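Researcher: Structure for this, please.
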Amino acid sequence: NTDDGSCQYACTAAPYSENFDAGLGTWSQDTGDDFDWILDAAGTPSFNTGPSDDVTGGGNYLFTESSGNYLQAAGFTSECFDISALANPCFSFNYHMFGAAMGTLDVYVNGNLEWSQSGDQGDQWNYAQVSLSAYAGTDVTIQFVGTTGTSFTSDMAVDLLCFMEAPLSGCMDPFADNYDPSATIDDG
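Model: Predicted structure, C-alpha cell format:
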C-alpha cells in the first residue's frame, strides 16, 4: 500500500528523435528549478534574441524566456533510453543561442556534464553531437539545463534531439585505395 520507488520500466530503445512538433513528447520539465522551458513556434517575444523559427522551418522548439528570469536555470529531462543496440552511440541536437547577454547551455548524461556552450553563438541554429561511447551498452537519461544571462537578450532554444549511430568519417570513394565502406561522412 506504499510505493517504495522500486518499480522498474523498460527504457525506450534507440534510435530515437524528438522535434517537439507534437509537444514535449516523453521529455519532462525539471521540478525545483527556477523556471520552465517554453514550447514555441513563432519566435520569442523579445527582440535581438532567440530564434524566429524551428530548425527545419514551421515547427516547434523549446526555449528559455529570459525576461524576468535573469541568471536563473531551467531544466528538462528525457525518459530513459536504451542505447545498447547502437555500436557507436551519440546524442545530437540543434541549439540556438543568440543574444548579447547569452548565458550557458549544459547537457548532462546520467548526471555527468558532457557538453556546455556559453555566450552569443549568432542568430542561427547550430548542430552539436555528444559521444555516448562511454555509456555504450547501457541506459541513459539526458538533461538540458539553460542558465540565462544578465538581461532579456539571453533566450536560448533547442530542437531536433536524436539518439543515433555516430557518423564515421573516412574515404567514401570506392575507387580510392583508402576506401572505407563503413564511412558515413566523406572526410576528403
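Researcher: Any notable elements?
Model: The chain has a mean pLDDT of 91. The two ends are 63 Å apart (CA to CA).
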